[in-house]
Amino acid sequence: MWRPWDNAPMNRRELLAELAQDTPSKIVFLVMDGLGGIPGPDGKTEMEAAHTHNLDELAARSILGLTDPISPGITPGSGPSHLALFGYDPFEFQVGRGILEALGIDFPLQPSDVAVRANFCLVDEKGILLDRRAGRLETAQAARLCHMLRDIKLVGAEALVEPVKEHRFVVVFRGEGLAPDVADTDPQRTGVSPLDPKALKPEAQRTALLARDFIRQASALLEGRAANMVMLRGFSTYPSIPSLSQLYKLRPAAIAVYPMYRGLARLVGMDILPAGGSLEDQLRTLRANWGKYDFFYLHVKDLDRTGEDGDFHGKVGAIEEVDRYLPAIDELGPDVLVVTGDHATPAVLKGHSWHPVPFLLRSPWCVPDGVTSFSERACRLGSLGRFPAVDAMGLALAYAQKLIKYGA
C-alpha cells in the first residue's frame, strides 16, 4: 500500500489500484482499431462519411471527447496505444511487437528468447522495396513460406519460425547471450531498401548478427517468389507487467481476431475467448460469456487495415459494419460501454498518425453531452475534451462504480 511518506509519489495507476473495488458491474471496451481519420477529397473524414445511425444515437446518450494515445504529436504503434487504453503508462511499460505476436499464437516462450514480428515483403532486382506486405499474402500461402524458412540454420542459436496471419509471422531467436536492443529493418515506406538490423546497445550485437544472417538466408530461399524478402521489427523479450486483475480487481476477457491483439490482452492478464473470423462471431462469444466476466475488450481490425491500404470507402464500410452490430452490444446492458480507437489511421495518409482519437462513454451515471453524432469534430464538442488515453480506464472504472472515495 502506498503511504504519503514514501519517497516515490503515487502515480495514477497506483492510485486507481488503491481505490478499485470488486463489483458485479460490467464494462465493455469496443476498440475500433485505427478509428480516427482526417478529411478526404470531399472534406469529410471516414467517420463523417459513414452512415452510423446507431453510433449517433448512442452518442446522444453519452459523454464524448478526444484522446491522445501517447502524447500530442506522437504517432503510436498499436502496442503502446492499447496499453494506454488499459491504464498502463506507455512510457513506463514498453513492450515490443515481437512478444505480442508470439503470445498471440500461444508460442511457448522461454525467458531468454528474443521474439520478432516479421513481414513477408516484395523487393525488385536492386533490393528496393515495392510492397511492404507482399500484397497481403493469404495466411495459408504465408504458412508455406514459413515452412521453407525453418530450413535456416544459424551458428550457435536457433531461429524458430511460426506463421501469424496474412503476411505476418514470428521469428524467435533462442540461444545464449541474446538481447533485444536491435533496430527494426522495416523503413515503413516503399521506394527504399529494407534497413540493416543494427545493434542499439553493445550487448545486442550477437542478436543483430543472427538477424542479419537470417535475412540473408531467407532472401536466398525466397528468390523468385511473390514474396521474396522479409523484414523484422519489434525485437523484444518477455516483460513484467501487473495484470488488470491485480490492479483493478477485474475479471477481464478479450475477444480479438488478430493474434497480436490476443497477445497484448494475454500480457495484461485477460482470458482469451474464441473470436472466430467475423464481428458476428465475436458478438456470439460476447453473449455466451456475459455472465463470466466483468470487463470485455472487443477488438475490430478492419478500419486499420483499410486505412493503411488507403481505401477510404473500405474504411467507411468497416465503420458502418460496426454500427450495424452495435445494438447487440448495447442490449446486453453493460454498465459502461466505451467506443473508441487505439489510434488514428487516416486513409489519406495510409498509415498510423498522431491525430487525436474519438472517444465515447455511455453509462446510466453520466450526464449526456447533447452531441448527436459520433465523429472527430463532434467529439471535439464533448464534455471530456481532449485527454490522455491512459485516463480512459479510470473513467470507465468510475462510471462502473468500481472506485471508492479518495481521502477523508
What does this structure look like?
- The chain is α/β, with parallel strands linked by helices and 408 residues long.
- It has two domains: 23-94 and 241-399, Alkaline Phosphatase, subunit A, CATH 3.40.720; 100-236, no CATH class.
- It contains 14 helices and 13 strands.
- Helix 5 crosses helix 9, helix 10 runs parallel beside helix 12 (312-330) and helix 11 runs antiparallel to helix 12.
- The model is unreliable at 1-8 (pLDDT under 50).
Tell me what portion of residues adopts beta-strand conformation.
15-25%
Output the strand order for the largest sheet: 9-8-10-1-11-12-2-13
Which class do the helix and strand fractions yield?
Answer: alpha/beta
The number of helical segments is 14
Sheet having the most strands: 8 strands, mixed
Number of domains: 2
According to CATH, the fold-level topology of the largest domain is Alkaline Phosphatase, subunit A
The CATH class of the largest domain: Alpha Beta
Query: How would you sum up the global shape?
Result: globular
Keywords, separated by commas or semicolons:
408 residues; alpha/beta; Alkaline Phosphatase, subunit A; 2 domains; eight-stranded mixed β-sheet; five-stranded antiparallel β-sheet; 14 helices; 31% helix; globular
